[in-house]
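Continuing the series of single-chain predictions for the mutant panel. This is the parent chain; the variants come on the following pages.
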Amino acid sequence: MDLSVNQFQGRILDAVGNLYELQILNFSHNNLKGNIPSTFGNLKSLESLDLSSNKLEGEIPSQLFDIDWRLLFMGWGYMRFCDGSCDRPRSQLVSHS
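Parent structure:
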């Protein structure tokens, strides 16, 4: 599902994590804010995830690392993440293509 460059604003809804058979999810180049929903851990069929060029911040949900990734692409560019308790935010470029 390609939802890139749509001028979306606000948070990503938790309900997106209920699209269990989703293989491609692209929310890049919007104006999304807040955290990545932990429900993204339900997306077991996901092969490509692009959340780059948004204003997302916080921790990357640990549920995403529980997926048996056959991931072809994961775009995180231009996002702010923090470590552990999020007391000390830091910029972190996880992967950028």
